[in-house]
Design goal:
Order of helices and strands: HEEHEEHEEHHHEEEEHHHH
Strand content: 15-25%
Number of helices: 10
CATH superfamily: Aminoglycoside phosphotransferase (APH), C-terminal lobe
Radius of gyration: 19 Å
Number of domains: 1
Shape: globular
Length: about 270
Amino acid sequence: MTVDDLLTGSGHGVRMDTLDDGTEVVVKGGEPSAIAAEAAGLRWLAEPGAVGVPDVLGEAEGRMVSTRVPAGRPEQAAAETFGRGLAALHAAGAPAFGSPPPGGPVHAWIGNARMINETGPSWTPWYAEHRVLPYARQARDQGTFSAGDVALVERACARLELVGGPDEPPARLHGDLWTGNVLWSGGQGWVIDPAAHGGHRETDLAMLALFGTPQLDTILAAYDEAAPLADGWRDRVGLHQLFPLLVHAVLFGGGYGSRALDVCEQLATP
């Protein structure tokens, strides 16, 4: 079996396979723009050599073959290495907030939700316009949010300039860095399934905290030692979690919408 053989298949989903030379691979099929965005994101995240990233061995219309990451455990030393590596990855930077990876589509995805990579000159207005309000309005249109809920989100967005912290340059983000997209193998952390774009580095860190990443305190301490975070960053975790919470509200509804509105209530209160 060769990479070309695996790229000629069809259908959606993920499966494992083995090449003729013994290389274990992951074969992924899906919506063509989603596969193109993921492949471009993996290549972009791999460039600095800062964290483990699977090699993209081949990509075709709606199909990708990448190397498989063997299973491992999140030991403390690996978490420290990952924290320092994540700081280096972010420091590799991006051309602008919202910029897609080189060769990646503007119309990208985060999980099964569409994500538009339109750029902006500064973080807070860009975050409100392209990472918060679109999903709040989509939640309203599908009946998860009321018009009043969206008004609350809009009031929170109006205060982002006041609560967003000091200006920072665009970071090279994974963009969907929840615990399921961090694998542990060979004494380091590996990242998969990115929604990569230029953004604020605290967003990746906040997403790590959202669903309980193992060794999180160790990761954050190593990160902060390598690239000190701005004062008050812990108070901004909810702000940066607002994006993934709203995406989850659109995809799954339920408690994610309530959690997002709780964050907005706090942000909207002077």
